[in-house]
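Board notes, transcribed. Complex of a protein with magnesium ion.
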Amino acid sequence: MRITDVRTAVVEANYDWTFVRVYTDEGLTGLGESFLAPGLTGIIRDLKPLLVGQDPLDVDRLFSRMRWAASGAGSVAGVVYNAISGIETALWDLAGKHYGVPVYRLLGGKYRDRVRVYADCHAGEALEALSSVMIPRRPRWLPPDEGLPPAGPGDPVHGRAFGLEEPGEAFTPEMYAARAREVAAMGFTALKFDLDVPNPHTIAPHSGTLTHAEIRHMVSLVEAVREAVGDGVDLAFDLHWRYNVSDAVRLACELEPYGLMWLEDPVPPENVEALRRVTRSTRTPIASGENLYLRHGFREALERGALDVAAPDLQKAGGLFEGRKIADMADAHYVAVAPHCIASPIGTVAAAHVAAAIPNFLALEWHGMGVPFWEEIATGLDGPVIREGFIRIPEGPGLGVELDEEVARRYAREGEPFF
Ligand code: MG
């Protein structure tokens, strides 16, 4: 069997869901998904000559082939790996179909039949839609009277944006509590909220600093969510790399009484020592990893004890087999893995195959709550992808889930090829 083509399709959802399909001379195809990035489908097209004519079952060799080509071009991390991850996933789907087994079997077999999902409630709004550089945008399918601001120039949502405009309206503890109750009632046993949201006590935005009153407001949001859901639901909060070390430590220590599952990305992502200082200064577990690529990206953080929870994104960190390897390395340091995921059902189920196949799995992210067609775009399963806060691992060959192309076409991104 030889690879004959690699094609992409992009669906405009809350993010640009970017699908990769690998074609062969035997008519078998494989489907994968890449984490969004500027110029992503162009990178996938550029990688195609490395794959055409090759045996698709040599997944790891083809991964290395792409990796070393990218490395020669200066990419030892970054968005080239978003492209490689989608292709690699498509190769596993293809291999599973060829051998007639689910992908988790090819990753070592399963530890669990169903994978625990945590619902990302971000800041409690119905939908947050972002461009490939995290600028808010308005999907063209959203009715004009629904909740989002019109698309236009704006600051990136996450991290220190350095815009001049005033921060938006603050969220109240009551709003967070109501959202938490609503989502917990859907059956989820774990929730995540953003905590770096507009705060009525902010004096120096984008500075990485927190006033005492800001910290108290953040604590009140966490307290409200904990009181709303009780002790039976695990809670995580995301800080999106926004704060300096000492203020992140002050906040993390103040949150200790609430028994968080984790506090995510308290400090900017480039400095392992800074992250380690936060992690070592608090009993609140610290999670990070969505900006790290490959085992090599996680190595130092794990070796130095900078992480309590590793959160690789399997649509960007190098793919499914690399995800398994990252999990193994984390396991050797007694660190749990909670994959970051903002994918469609295709990428989410792909990540669930890895989650099923690793011992040290904690929870898998679901970031699609505000997307009305999230479930509709998946086909091939005997029911919804997520049921009562869990994904039952498909037993069909490959990923066991396919794209409903009729639905996907309806939301396809203009100006991008559709396979
Ligand atoms: Mg995050």
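The mean pLDDT is 94. The pocket of magnesium ion is lined by residues 238, 264-265, 290 (CB under 6 Å).
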